[in-house]
Amino acid sequence: GFCVGGGVGLVGNADCIVASDDAYFGVPEVNQGALGAATHMARLVPPHMLRTLYFTARTIKAVDLVQFGSVLETVPREELMDAALRVATDIASKDTRVIRAAKEALNGIDPVDVNKSYRFEQGFTFELNLAGVADELRDEFAGTEKSKK
Fold first, then answer.
1. Cα(108)–Cα(53) distance, integer angstroms
2. DSSP letter string over 59-128?
3. pLDDT tens track of the chain, all 149 residues?
């Protein structure tokens, strides 16, 4: 049902996404004093939706991502593997030399270098950790007081 945080990082790097119709996507790290996967979430939603989801730690339904074109289709969970295999079979039926060239071409024209962008984003998480903000918020979430000792 949930694809959050690191899961969004994996999905944001995918070439094609098929999701279960009960799936939710989100980046809730802001609640724990960290940042993460905005680079990848930006591949799934328009800019203002990204900002809303990121700042509020809300999730978005997979069925809503279909309208943005980031999710190809949603299916009942029990049909997910079959749906993914249909897409994979379609791609695999193409000449591999062409598919590899297409993949390289698409990566080359991508306006955002995901590795550099994610590294930039994680620099802010590092700063929040150094300032103790992340410990404070994680302790509040977990009901511990490690940062106060």
1. 28
2. EEEHHHHHHHTSS-EEE-GGGHHHHHHHHHHHHHTS-HHHHHHHHHHHHHH-SS-HHHHHHHHHHHHHHH
3. 899 999 999 999 999 999 999 999 999 999 988 888 999 999 999 999 999 999 999 999 999 999 999 999 999 999 999 999 999 999 999 999 999 999 999 999 988 888 899 899 999 989 998 999 988 988 888 888 764 55
In order of their start, the domains of the chain are 2-144 (3.90.226.10)
Query: How many Å apart are CA 69 and CA 45, to the nearest integer?
Result: 9
What sign for the dihedral angle of Cα 66, 94, 110, 4? positive
Cβ-count burial 112-142 (b if 16+ within 10 Å, e if not): eebeeebeebeeebeebeeeebbbbbbbeee
> pTM to 2 decimals?
0.83
Looking at residue 60, its amino acid is I
Measured in residues, the chain has a length of: 149
